[in-house]
Amino acid sequence: MKIPTLLQRGPIGRLLTNPLMQRVIRNSGYLFTGSTLSAALSMIQGILAARLLGIESFGVLGIITVFVSVINRLTSFRMAELVVNYVGEFSEKGEKDRAAAAFKTAALFETGSSVLAFLLILVLAPIAATYLAQDPSTVGLFMLYGMIVPAHMLAESSTGLLQYLNQFKLLAGIQVAQSVITLLLIVGAFATGGGLLAVLVAYLVGKVAWSLGITGAALTHAHRAWGSGWWRAPFSLIHIRRKEMLRFGVSTNLTGTLTLLSRDSEILWLGALASPIAAGYYKVSLAILNILLIPVQPLITTTYRELAREIGARAWDNVRYLLRSGSMISVAYSIPAALFLGVFGPWVISLWGAEFLPQSYGVMGILLVGVTFVNVFYWNRTTLLPLGLPEYPTKVILVAAIAKVVAILILVPRYGAFGMAATLSGFFLFTGAVLVWKTVRVLRQRADAAPLPAAG
Q1: For the whole model, what pTM was predicted?
Q2: Furthest CA-CA distance within the chain
Q3: Which sequence spans correspond to the domains of the chain?
């Protein structure tokens, strides 16, 4: 990456010319481009859907999509992180057969978890329709959208493999293609006056297209990396590491489950304890906050890849440099973006419809506090995984989740979406602060115990 001479001076120059950050920035750039285009298209999708459906039906749409996502992720072992960690480790050692066996193991477990998730959706759909959407007639819509789960059967493992193989540009392209397909279908529904079913089918088709694209690309690259018979690599090759891999997967699953129940299922809590209308207000606020999250989400993925490599090499100076530099990049965007939303939020929300004001603006303002903080320290959880402490985030999130659920039960019935926003911001502030403190402390201990020169 050629850096102009003018930018090669000072802290910014050192950051831009460092090989580690060049890889992070380059790969983040691919994902950022894809995320930006995808987010812009998704915003248009949301605006059209909200104007077509109205607050209540828009809230029901959010309840259906979040319900299926929560059940799917409930059984997930976050295979993308496991694949990056172990396929990466074996590949760096030149052990291609073991790398292939690790990927095959991850894919097998993900397939089993997807089957379980789909069965749970079929069983729980009547309950969700009655008590979350507060409309028993929507049970068929829950089951219909649940079809994304079998389609996503290998999606996480495939995503992790493509990340490790440095196929971030391909990942971004598939993401944009999904958004284009979904938008075209929603435009068609808007033009023809379609209802909730038409919008839901649009989201379903887009998700299925993404999953098939990711899976096909991963299998193609697995063939190129390990040969045509890679899938015959025996499980016995990783037998000695099976307990460690299981511990990694279970820990990340528990962390993900706690996060789902306490942080990523607010729409469902609102449907059960308040109303679909409150869920609609909250859904719009979350959609707008994507403006703040767009450039930071790619940094999580790309920084994790580099952190796993540098921690494996015990290059502690490089690890600390990555974390500091990543936070600097995030601050440069997150603070101005938060200020923009604070000032121009009412105008942005009005694009979804004047009926969403002023409630969605107030909800968004509360959420901005916690989201901005966790944006700056976006690496707070993932850094502890390659450091060999996958259980620590689980313990921290467990404590925060219990407190948040209690707060939800107290605040949401009375304050609706505003109460939910307050609990989420508090959750972000507490977990982020504790995990950052732990990461800094562990890195200092490791560096003091076995100081090694930086790798580059």
Answers
A1: 0.77
A2: 67
A3: 5-449
